[in-house]
Write a structure and sequence with these properties.
- The relative contact order is 0.17.
- The mean pLDDT is 97.
- This protein has eight helices and ten strands.
- Helix 1 runs parallel beside helix 8.
- By secondary structure, it is of the alpha/beta class.
């Protein structure tokens, strides 16, 4: 059987703290992983907390974020159709998958943490010996994930993800609903970040792989693929 990966995307299209500000999936964080996994022959399934449509973050469609990989996806009707009909957690049997990979965009801060379905799938994949990956804000999907013994999956583990400094520099610190870097530390994670903001930084701790920001998307996916 081929290696199978769940790719998690958001359903949210605006900041719930301010509905006038649109948000969504950060496209290149999906496409860099999808392209690399496809080249390795991995089978991929897109999943979201509610199933159905995953909207795009407008800021991910502007220079310099809108790179060749993201542009090729957006101009491919078959690829875009995948974002119109994502699976929901209830449609997924975690035993069919070797890894789960959380993409980002500020939207995920609102719908990833509260998805008990995603939490269950993540726990089952991890405890069965599978890989858990997340890039940028994708690590919000790990905030409330606990293992069978009740401990947080991230507790005592080395991780990274979009930093509070980067939130401030992106001028969204007044819009985001919480400081995910601090919340991760509160759950016992050993958080680290690059010396400079927005440069690639990826952390591997056993079967947990996390990347700090959009610039880390290729490196994070490559390290997940290497483990698989």
């Amino acid at each position: 059987m081929s290696t199978r990966i769940l790719i998690v995307v958001t359903n949210v299209d605006h900041y719930e703290t301010d509905p006038s500000h649109p948000t969504g999936l950060w496209l290149s964080e999906l496409t860099h992983a999808y392209d690399l996994f496809e080249k390795r022959g991995f089978e991929q399934t897109l999943i979201s907390p509610a199933g159905g449509r995953s909207p795009l973050e407008p800021r991910s469609l502007t220079f310099p974020n809108y790179d060749a990989s993201a542009k090729a996806w957006r101009e491919n009707p078959a690829r875009m159709a995948l974002l119109d009909d994502t699976a929901s957690p209830g449609q997924i049997d975690s035993a069919d998958y070797d890894a789960i990979y959380f993409t980002g965009g500020h939207a995920v801060m609102f719908d990833f943490p509260g998805s008990t379905g995603l939490q269950q799938i993540t726990r089952e994949i991890f405890e069965r010996g599978g890989i858990v990956g997340a890039v940028c804000h994708g690590y919000c999907g790990l905030l409330e994930t606990t293992l069978s013994d009740g401990s947080h999956l991230v507790a005592g583990r080395n991780i990274t993800g979009f930093s509070w400094r980067e939130e401030v520099l992106a001028r969204v610190d007044k819009l985001v609903p919480y400081n995910v870097e601090q919340w991760m530390k509160d759950r016992g994670a050993r958080y680290s970040k690059a010396l400079l903001p927005f440069v690639s930084h990826t952390v591997v701790d056993g079967r947990l792989v996390t990347g700090q920001n959009p610039g880390s998307a290729k490196e994070t996916a490559a390290k997940v693929a290497a483990l698989l």
